[in-house]
Specification:
The protein has about 70 residues and is mostly helical. The chain contains 5 helices and no strands. It is about 70% helix and about 0% strand. Helix 1 packs across helix 2.
Amino acid sequence: MRALIEFDDAAIAALDRLAREQNVSRSALVREAVANLLERSEKPRMDDAFGLWAVSGSAVDGVSYQRRLREEW
């Protein structure tokens, strides 16, 4: 499928330079960049888990829970 995308002149120049260096077409570079972006967006990230304890709706205090677990050791 084709898509019409507008880039500024500086981006085109940078893409052309990279394409020459890698001996690929500008289109191949853009396809690779989009594929990488889509792959990264599908993987779970650590940011998604940060603060999960608070979001989980748990009424247990996190520090108390941690101390209780450590007492078992």
